[in-house]
């Protein structure tokens, strides 16, 4: 308004500032735009288009730890908000639940592995399952096995393949499904000296690490793509698992991907 008054009515800057109650410093201020702002905006748009489930935290952690950018988080967040890239926050339902047993946090690698299943369907309506295996210590994804049926023998085969290149865990945490309570699975765990830790029925929060991992899989790619064959699912899962372990920031690792965490 002061600038308009000076331009149209030919009054002095001092009088215009006094009339509108602003300082002359404010009147003469010009923002120092940086070329980095355009670069930050470009990278944020590219990240959110490629990973639509990422919020500001994951985007900033990726820029800081993976791309090694040194921009201040306030600056990145301001541009993030100006671009209206914020995720919609869903209201939480408040339910009264009995306090479950506390989830034990591992202190070293290969101390606890967690196993769980997921379900989805192909474009022709055929249903398939995913067997997910993670190391709870750094939330590292170890395996994603896809199949129309994943009985106990397939679970054991997947774990044997992991033991070919990785040290065996002390504990395997899983739910009370038929694949995990079968005699074959219990016998396999006993032969390898692995203790099976079953969660309480109806208490998925006792297996919270892999439940959170399942959610990441669901929103990152499983619900975003429609696959025609099981081979397509397995190929995509294998490629995504490498991306998850090497590039995707994880807040439990202070913003670093699992294999970059100390």
UniProtKB/TrEMBL annotation:
Pfam family, one: rve_3
Species assigned in the record: Acinetobacter indicus CIP 110367
Source domain of life: Bacteria
Signal sequence interval, chain numbering: none
UniProt cross-references to Gene3D superfamilies, sorted A to Z: Ribonuclease H-like superfamily/Ribonuclease H (3.30.420.10)
Name of the molecule in the record: Integrase catalytic domain-containing protein
Segments forming domain Integrase catalytic: 102-262
Organism lineage string: Bacteria, Pseudomonadati, Pseudomonadota, Gammaproteobacteria, Moraxellales
Positions of transmembrane segments: none
């Amino acid at each position: 308004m002061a600038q308009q008054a000076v331009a149209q009515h030919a009054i002095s800057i001092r009088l215009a500032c006094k009339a509108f109650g602003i300082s002359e410093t404010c009147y003469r201020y010009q923002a120092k735009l940086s070329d980095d702002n355009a670069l930050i905006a470009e990278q944020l748009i590219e990240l959110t288009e490629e990973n639509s489930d990422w919020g500001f935290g994951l985007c900033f952690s990726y820029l800081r730890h993976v791309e090694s950018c040194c921009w201040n988080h306030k600056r990145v967040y301001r541009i993030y908000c100006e671009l209206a890239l914020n995720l919609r926050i869903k209201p939480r339902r408040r339910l009264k639940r009995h306090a479950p047993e506390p989830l034990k946090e591992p202190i070293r690698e290969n101390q606890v592995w967690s196993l769980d299943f997921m379900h989805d369907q192909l474009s022709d309506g055929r249903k398939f399952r995913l067997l997910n295996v993670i190391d709870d210590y750094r939330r590292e994804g170890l395996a994603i096995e896809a199949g129309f049926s994943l009985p106990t023998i397939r679970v054991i085969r997947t774990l044997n393949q992991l033991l070919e290149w990785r040290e065996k865990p002390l504990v395997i945490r899983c739910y009370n499904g038929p694949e995990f309570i079968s005699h074959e699975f219990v016998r396999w765990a006993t032969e390898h000296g692995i203790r099976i830790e079953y969660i309480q029925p109806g208490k998925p929060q006792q297996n919270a690490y892999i439940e959170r991992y399942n959610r990441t899989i669901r929103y990152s790619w499983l619900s975003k793509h429609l696959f025609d064959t099981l081979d397509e699912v397995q190929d995509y899962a294998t490629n995504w698992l490498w991306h998850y372990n090497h590039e995707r920031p994880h807040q439990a690792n202070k913003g670093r991907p699992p294999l970059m965490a100390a």
